Automatic annotation (TrEMBL):
Ranges annotated as spanning the membrane: 309-329
Source organism (scientific name): Arabidopsis thaliana x Arabidopsis arenosa
Protein name: Thioredoxin-like ferredoxin
Pfam families, A to Z: Suc_Fer-like (PF06999)
Coiled coil: none
Length: 333
């Protein structure tokens, strides 16, 4: 138990300013604090200790970020980019919710990769597409960007490692440190990609996470597909209004703030963060009003032109003349 207590805390000198005891914790309603997007790309690159404050401004991440910005109108769906720790796997690319991994993408490969995979939705012609499975948990530990995630993230990560190990889930859950996901004031921040109750891969964001929340995230969200409402930030693929609907669903009577996750098929919207693709959120078009067709009679009431009127008058006149002549002839006889 002493180990767990150590994992639950940060140095007292930092806890009240940057850690879990800082005054801003739980001060904001964080539901729907992400903008909508439909695809998440993670580039494996170095380690958090080596990242710049804006890690997307160097190397391989920069190549991806530049193309995402310049070609946002060419993308099939709204896409967000993040960096996660690489180590010996630098250059690998993970794509969610597709659950796909490409290995060893180099700087010179990015343009072709981007065209094939992200623009045209096809397998990369110069690499091998690998399917990935299980649950992926990304914890923001981007200390060079903001010290709050630098203090809270590693502690949450260590608690995850311990709980995953004690449950024998190491072969089912992949845990990675990632770059800035937006709103460091909500630290600890994390994203979980796992199947929902219908088997569909969803990406759910959490904020104000503490080490004490980790067992519940494993036992409720990952194991049962139940959203932990009190620390939930939103879900990949849900436009803003739909995210609010999920958050506002009726709470379980015992007040534990857990909401059953539903499988939604929404895409579109705008990406979170400075390096995601920004665009206006797609709205569901309103149905066109039903127009009743009025059938017109085109035989007897069709307008006549001048020539037709003259001919008609002549015919009528001729008939009248013949009738009068016949009447006169009959009387004279």
């Amino acid at each position: 138990m002493a180990d767990v207590e150590n994992l639950n805390s940060v140095p007292a000198s930092e806890d009240t300013e940057y850690g879990f005891k800082r005054p801003e914790m739980y001060s904001t309603n964080i539901a729907n604090s992400i903008t909508s997007y439909a695809r998440h790309v993670f580039v494996l690159y170095k380690t958090p200790e080596a990242w710049l404050s804006h890690v997307e401004e160097e190397g391989l991440p920069q190549r991806f970020a530049t193309l995402l910005k310049d070609r946002k109108s060419d993308l099939l769906v709204q896409t967000k980019l993040n960096v996660c720790e690489g180590g010996g796997s630098d250059g690998d690319v993970l794509i969610f919710p597709d659950m796909i991994r490409y290995k060893g993408v180099k700087d010179t490969d990015v343009e072709g990769f981007f065209e094939d995979v992200l623009v045209n939705g096809k397998p990369w012609s110069s690499g091998i597409q690998e399917e990935i499975s299980g649950t992926f948990v990304f914890v923001c530990t981007h200390a060079s960007r903001d010290k709050r995630c630098g203090v809270c993230g590693p502690v949450i990560l260590e608690r995850f490692k311990q709980e995953i190990g004690s449950r024998g889930l190491s072969d089912q859950i992949t845990l990675k440190r990632c770059s800035h996901v937006g709103q460091h004031k909500y630290a600890g921040n994390l994203i979980i990609f796992c199947p929902d109750s219908a088997g569909k891969i969803t990406g759910n964001w959490y904020g104000y996470v503490t080490p004490d929340d980790v067992p519940e995230l494993l036992d409720q969200h990952i194991a049962k597909g139940e959203i932990i409402q009190r620390i939930w930030r939103g879900q990949m693929g849900l436009p803003g209004g739909e995210a609010e609907k999920v958050h506002e669903q009726k709470v379980i009577p015992n007040g534990n703030g857990v909401v059953k996750e539903e499988s939604k098929g929404f895409t579109g919207g705008c990406c979170q963060g400075s390096n995601g693709v920004s665009c206006c959120q797609d709205e569901t078009p309103k149905p066109e009003p039903i127009k009743k067709e009025v059938k017109k009679c085109t035989i007897w009431f069709q307008p006549l032109d001048k020539e037709e009127l003259y001919i008609g008058a002549a015919v009528v006149g001729a008939i009248a003349t013949i009738a009068m002549a016949f009447t006169f002839f009959k009387r004279s006889g």
